[in-house]
Amino acid sequence: MLASWGDRLGCIRRAVTTMQRRRMAGLPIAVSVLVGALSGLVWSVLAPPEQVVVVAPGVGAALTGESLHRFDALALFACGAFVAGIVLPVAFWAWTRARGPMLYLGLLVGAALGSAAMLAIGIWIAGLIHPRPEDSAVGSVVSVAPGIGSLLVLVVQPLITSLVVVLLAAMNPHDNLRYTPDEDVPCDELESASANGTEYVEAERP
Questions:
Q1: Which one is predicted more confidently, 79 or 192?
Q2: Exposure winner among 84, 95, 103, 186, fewest CB in 10 A?
Q3: Element of type H or E holding 61
Q4: Radius of gyration of the chain (CA)
């Protein structure tokens, strides 16, 4: 009888744990957005502005070699997203009891929102650091705030996050990605036994 109640309590605990994991999926999203915002701040400081010469009112031409800074800004953004796509999944994978589809969903959504936050914060702060000059004289050299040039860079962090999670799951030897104790009793067996009015007694191992 005591063994039966203990197994039923174990099943209840596992059900509660499942509900907690669903709620915990929001934590990776919040952390990813925060990391993305901080990465955007760092990117706005490190990304070099582009020097252009004003050839007509509102029209500028890049100086020799300055167009390379467009790639520099894009590469820095991609590197930040790449690092976040590796570090965040590995860090949350250490949270053993939260492993599973809900954690992956939280990491994937967080990676997408984190990249968007990194772009929005980075572009906004870069515009404050390097404001667009108004009414510049023709022939003058002005600095233009950096940009990423292509929105395809936003897929870097979600893609790397997915690859890292798949690799971590493939390297895990357990079916439930956490542990597989031999003494676990399936909940459906306990429910069937309870419905039939019988008690579940764990057999002694030889």
A1: 79
A2: 186
A3: strand 59-62
A4: 27
Name the DSSP class of 167.
H
Closest C-alpha among 187, 152, 153 to residue 13: 187
Q: Which of 87, 30, 66 is nearest to 141 (CA)?
A: 66
Listed in sequence order, the DSSP H helices in the chain are 2-24, 26-46, 68-93, 101-129, 156-171, 187-195
Place of tokens 């929001």: 26
Instruction: Please spell the DSSP secondary structure of 47-60, one letter per residue.
Output: SPPEEEEEEETTEE
144 membership: H or E segment, kind and range: strand 141-144
Q: In 3D, which of 86, 90, 84 has the Cα closest to residue 103?
A: 90
Residue tagged 């999926």 (tokens): 25
187-204 per-position pLDDT tens digit: 454 445 444 544 434 444
Instruction: Give DSSP secondary structure letters for 173-184.
Output: -STTSS---TT-
Structure-token pair, residue 168:
């971590």
This prediction has a pTM of 0.70
In whole angstroms, give the CA distance from residue 25 to residue 100: 10
* Residue linked to tokens 């949270």: 95
Tokens of 7: 């197994």
Sign of CA dihedral 71, 76, 80, 85: positive
**Amino acid letter for position 48:** P
Task: Give the whole-angstrom CA distance, residue 83 versus residue 87.
Answer: 6
